[in-house]
């Protein structure tokens, strides 16, 4: 394990790797001449004698799978740091497919609770390559810092990967329920200025809210085919009336889209901006393997036998505007609406 | 063009299936849906025809907006001569059946004759076939719908079917689709059963191409916005019509213990608010709905725990709670659920049961008559048992299964004054004494005692200036006043005709008054490309009302039949009814005003020849003249 360790400024990766200085010593440390407090989460504490191993994506299901398949990691993040010369150092292992990284600045944006540490809004630390640097005079809670750690390599990645679906998360709350300190993670450009991140909305579906009215089907068929024809629609509602189930079937723009991988004819591709899956009808051979691969049953075969997949109306879906109950929305989960 | 321009004519006796063209003039004149059905009903089902004979015809009509993205465009009208009233039968249901019929390519289905064995009709993309349905005999409504879908191996098939009640000959059995979407009034299910037709299944994969897409899109977006900004939007999505239990109880005109009072002490426990808070799982809507007012619920406690279904509407909920004195919401929901599964009208069923309960209270019937059923108020077990008995036509239920008029005939002349019906159709769950406009609407409704023919909700606005501006009387804006109500009812009757003929939901068109005649004409022009005008539409609505009136006049209806049960005209609401206390319906002056507004003869209530001819109904005028009616 340790053989793979490199200094981060040489390297590029997604996984943090290294060693804690020993479990006990991290609880209160002097950083940048300032007292910062921190502790390890239980799992890390247990394993901290040699390495701290955190599962990054502990949620089961396709999202975790999508990330692990995208090549950067196997679903785990190796985290460690050393405190040397009153500075934090983090180490990264070499990853694949990543050639460049952003620097980050993590700013204390707001203190909503009763944090008794000497931080004030505006305090920050920077992640420069593999180093975490707390500027002299600034205070950062070590507990919050270690909670933020799994986020940092994700936000640092700078890749042009088709299936890159890093969660759009800009803010994180410290783990102390009394403290409620809100940290904002800014991505820095070459001149160390915060850059506005591109928000990539996607189709969000909440079947528990769906009233089953099928207005979305009409909105879709009218926008795309100029007629009211639910059978042609690229979003459809599957129903089980006696059980009260109404499930909108629509493409969710999977990061690692299994339909694209499954297509033997190369008929499917991703739209570069909206990330919607596009169908090349000339190439489609109507084999339905994409439908078999789709975890959401969101591919429809009309009378011409060609695959039909929601293309997000080129970034402005008409169906979501018609929905009265908010069962389908276009945005990012967690966004305040 | 959002008309299909085609009608399907099926003769079950001969098995012939024909497709007929619908001319532009016909569609322009009667719009569609209810209008189209009424034109056919007048022409094809004369007074000599017995409602349960093969000569009666069943019409399934949808309108120009059915199947479009117009909010609530999922409705269908089912019409025939009514076996319950012997007069005009017409009933409207939501759900997904109507739109599927449009996508299959038809504006109307006409079913004639009588099959020798039980069958069902499958309509699919421009064609149809009659299929055997012996295996569906005896199945309840939900099971029939599921079974047909299973058999056709297509979950998108929409099924309108009858349940056990219709098969057993209950006169107020309805036609049901999408579980609980019921065309239940006036016994259309009984007509279907008489034809040995268990169900109509439909599947359409076609589309409706609007004439001017951009215009339609823009107008629909504006209408959606208007709806979402309307004060009624939130409560309707939250509670649907069930909020009326609480609202009417507060107003002192909730039908309680068979209209003996307007205040139900147990209303809180059976209110829509209570239901929504405790058992609602989510809002449910009909096709293309912007105001999904139905609710999926699951009972989690009490005797009926585990019961899950959609709905109920106010009429069902109040019918099996306040009207029969039951304050257990579980029992009320079970009653509604039984009616839905057996396929019966909740209003007529609850009237028949509460009628019997009042007779029992007054000692006019005893345990001997009821076959041992204790019919004291609030006995929910007896209520549920009676629903079963009616369905199977067993015991005391058999006596009630032909409607309250027949039941009163059988139980003796002195019981007739307790039968709450108008023209043979049982009346709804609000006390007419507290809602004078509704009272008039129910009294003159062309299908008999029903509130959905007018819904004059203007009388709740309490805005005297608007009352003067719109209907020439400040009183018209107040529910307990009677002045101006004739004009209010005329206006709202025509709004209802417009809604039923476009075949869209009355929540939007009537209660919220969204889409004026001018806007409707504009939308129809953009949608169909036909030359609809505001005046034309208004005239069409009036024409359809006159056709209906001419139809029932031909069946013998006169002014004397436009009345209400005696109780509402003479017995004031008791003191406990708060704001409505002491009120009776001043029907005669309202009727005078109504006939004057309609241009009908005040003494007889018949339309005049001149009036009919001015509406272009020369043929009908000639027919009535031949019968000596004008």
The low-pLDDT segments of chain B are none
Counted by DSSP, the helix tally of chain B is: 27
Percent strand of chain A: 25-35%
| Helicity of chain B, as a percent range | 40-55%
Query: How many domain units of chain B?
Result: 3
The backbone outline of chain B, from C-alpha atoms, is globular
Interface with most residues:
A-B, 32 and 46 residues
What structural class results from the helix and strand content of chain B? Answer: alpha+beta
Helical fraction of chain A equals: 10-25%
Q: Based on helices, strands and strand pairing, what is the structural class of chain A?
A: alpha+beta
Average the pLDDT over all residues of chain A and give the rounded result.
72
Tally of helical runs of chain A:
8
Write the layout of secondary structure elements.
The complex is a heterodimer of chains A (337) and B (630).
Chain A: E1 5-7, E2 15-16, E3 28-31, E4 34-37, H1 42-47, E5 52-55, H2 62-69, E6 76-79, E7 81-84, E8 87-93, E9 100-101, E10 103-111, E11 124-128, E12 131-133, H3 142-148, H4 151-156, E13 157-158, E14 171-173, E15 181-188, E16 194-195, E17 202-205, H5 215-225, E18 236-240, E19 245-249, H6 258-262, E20 268-270, E21 277-279, H7 289-293, E22 300-301, E23 307-308, H8 318-322, E24 328-331
Antiparallel strand pairs in A: 1-8, 2-8, 3-4, 5-6, 7-8, 8-12, 9-13, 10-11, 10-15, 11-12, 14-15, 15-16, 17-24, 18-19, 20-21, 22-23
Chain B: E1 6-11, E2 17-21, H1 24-30, H2 33-44, E3 58-61, E4 76-81, E5 88-93, H3 97-103, E6 108-112, E7 119-124, E8 127-132, H4 141-152, E9 158-161, H5 164-167, E10 175-177, E11 181-183, H6 188-194, E12 197-203, H7 213-228, H8 233-239, H9 243-251, H10 272-278, E13 280-284, E14 294-298, E15 308-310, H11 314-319, H12 329-342, H13 346-361, H14 367-370, H15 380-392, H16 395-400, H17 404-411, E16 421-422, E17 425-426, H18 436-444, H19 464-471, H20 485-502, H21 506-511, H22 517-528, H23 534-554, H24 566-570, H25 587-598, H26 609-614, H27 618-626
Parallel strand pairs in B: 1-6, 7-12
Antiparallel strand pairs in B: 1-2, 3-4, 3-6, 4-5, 7-8, 9-10, 9-12, 10-11, 13-14, 14-15, 16-17
Helix pairs in contact in B: 2-20, 2-23, 12-15, 18-20, 20-23, 20-25, 22-23
């Amino acid at each position: 394990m340790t053989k793979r360790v490199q200094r981060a400024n040489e390297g590029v990766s997604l996984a943090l790797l290294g060693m804690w200085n020993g479990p006990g010593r991290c609880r209160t440390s002097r950083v940048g001449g300032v007292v910062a407090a921190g502790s390890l989460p239980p799992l890390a504490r247990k394993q901290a004698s040699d390495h701290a191993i955190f599962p990054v994506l502990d949620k089961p299901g396709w999202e975790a799978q999508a990330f692990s398949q995208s090549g950067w990691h196997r679903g785990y993040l190796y985290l460690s740091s050393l405190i040397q010369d009153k500075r934090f150092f983090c180490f990264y292992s070499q990853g694949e497919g990543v050639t460049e990284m952003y620097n980050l600045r993590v700013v204390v944006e707001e203190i909503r609770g009763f944090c008794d540490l000497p931080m004030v809004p505006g305090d920050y630390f920077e992640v420069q390559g593999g180093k975490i640097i707390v500027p002299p005079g600034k205070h950062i809670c070590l507990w919050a810092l270690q909670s933020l750690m799994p986020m940092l390599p994700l936000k640092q990645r700078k890749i042009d990967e088709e299936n890159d679906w890093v969660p759009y998360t800009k803010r994180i709350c410290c783990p102390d329920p009394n403290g409620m300190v809100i940290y904002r993670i800014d991505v820095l450009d070459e001149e160390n200025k915060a850059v506005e991140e591109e928000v990539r909305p996607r189709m969000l579906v909440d079947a528990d809210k769906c009233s089953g009215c099928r207005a979305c089907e009409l909105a879709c068929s009218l926008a795309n085919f100029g007629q009211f024809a639910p059978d042609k629609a690229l979003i459809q509602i599957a129903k089980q009336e006696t059980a009260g189930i109404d499930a909108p079937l629509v493409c969710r723009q999977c990061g690692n889209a299994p339909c694209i991988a499954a297509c033997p004819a190369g008929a499917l591709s991703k739209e570069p901006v909206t990330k919607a899956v596009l169908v090349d009808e000339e190439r489609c051979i109507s084999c339905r393997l994409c439908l078999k691969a789709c975890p959401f049953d969101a591919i429809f075969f009309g009378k011409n036998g060609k695959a039909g997949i929601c293309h997000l109306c080129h970034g402005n879906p008409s169906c979501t505007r018609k929905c009265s109950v908010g069962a389908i929305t276009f945005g990012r989960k967690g966004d305040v609406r | 063009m959002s008309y299909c321009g085609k009608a399907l004519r099926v003769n079950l006796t001969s098995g012939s299936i024909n497709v007929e063209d619908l001319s532009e003039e016909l569609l322009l004149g009667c719009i569609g849906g209810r209008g189209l059905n009424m034109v056919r009903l007048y022409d094809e089902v004369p007074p000599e025809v017995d409602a349960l004979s093969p000569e009666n015809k069943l019409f399934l009509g949808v309108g120009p907006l059915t199947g479009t993205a117009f909010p609530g465009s999922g409705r269908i009208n089912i019409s025939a001569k009514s076996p319950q009233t012997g007069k005009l039968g017409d009933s409207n249901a939501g759900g997904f059946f109507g739109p599927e019929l449009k996508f299959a390519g038809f504006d109307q289905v006409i079913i004639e004759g009588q099959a020798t064995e039980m069958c069902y009709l499958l309509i699919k993309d421009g064609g149809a076939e009659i299929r055997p349905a012996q295996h569906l005999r005896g199945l309840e409504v939900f099971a029939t719908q599921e079974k047909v879908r299973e058999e056709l191996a297509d979950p998108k098939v929409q099924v309108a079917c009858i349940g056990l009640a219709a098969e057993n000959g209950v006169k107020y059995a309805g036609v049901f689709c999408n579980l609980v979407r019921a065309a239940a009034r006036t016994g259309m299910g009984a007509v279907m059963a008489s034809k040995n037709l268990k169900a109509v299944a439909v599947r359409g994969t076609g589309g409706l191409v609007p004439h001017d897409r951009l215009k339609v899109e823009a107008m629909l977006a504006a209408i959606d916005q208007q709806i979402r900004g309307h004060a009624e939007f939130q409560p309707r999505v939250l509670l649907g019509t069930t909020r009326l239990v609480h609202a009417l109880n507060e107003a002192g005109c909730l039908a309680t213990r068979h209209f003996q009072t307007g205040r139900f002490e147990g209303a809180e426990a059976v209110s829509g608010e209570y239901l929504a808070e405790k058992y609602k799982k989510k809002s449910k809507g009909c096709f293309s709905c912007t105001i999904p007012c139905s609710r999926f619920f699951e009972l989690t406690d009490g005797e009926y725990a585990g019961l899950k279904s959609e709905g109920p509407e106010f009429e069902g909920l109040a019918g099996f709670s306040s009207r029969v004195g039951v304050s257990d919401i579980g029992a009320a929901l079970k009653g509604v659920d039984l009616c839905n599964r057996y396929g019966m009208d909740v209003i007529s069923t609850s009237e028949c049961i509460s009628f019997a309960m009042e007779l029992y209270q007054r000692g006019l019937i005893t345990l001997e008559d009821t076959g041992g059923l204790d019919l004291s108020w609030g006995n929910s077990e007896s209520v549920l048992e009676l629903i079963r008995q009616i369905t199977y036509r067993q015991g005391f239920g058999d006596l009630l299964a032909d409607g309250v008029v027949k039941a009163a005939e059988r139980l003796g002349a002195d019981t007739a004054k307790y039968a709450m019906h108008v023209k043979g159709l049982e009346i709804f769950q609000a006390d007419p004494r507290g809602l004078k406009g509704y009272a008039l609407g129910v009294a003159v409704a062309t299908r008999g005692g029903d509130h959905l023919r007018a819904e004059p909700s203007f009388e709740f606005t309490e805005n005297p200036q608007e009352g003067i501006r719109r209907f020439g009387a400040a009183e018209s804006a107040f529910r307990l006043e009677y002045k101006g109500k004739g004009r209010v009812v005329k206006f709202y009757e025509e709004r209802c005709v417009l809604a039923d003929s476009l075949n869209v939901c009355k929540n939007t068109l009537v209660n919220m008054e969204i889409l004026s005649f001018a806007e409707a004409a504009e939308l129809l022009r953009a949608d169909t490309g036909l030359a609809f005008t505001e005046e034309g539409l208004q005239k069409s609505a009036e024409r359809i009302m006159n056709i209906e009136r001419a139809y029932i006049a031909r069946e013998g209806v006169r002014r004397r039949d436009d009345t209400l049960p005696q109780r509402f005209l003479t017995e004031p609401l008791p003191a406990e009814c708060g704001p409505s206390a002491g009120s009776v319906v001043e029907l005669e002056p309202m009727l005078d005003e109504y006939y004057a507004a309609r241009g009908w003869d005040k003494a007889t209530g018949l339309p005049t020849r001149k009036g009919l001819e001015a509406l272009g109904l020369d043929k009908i005028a000639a027919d009535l003249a031949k019968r000596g009616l004008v």
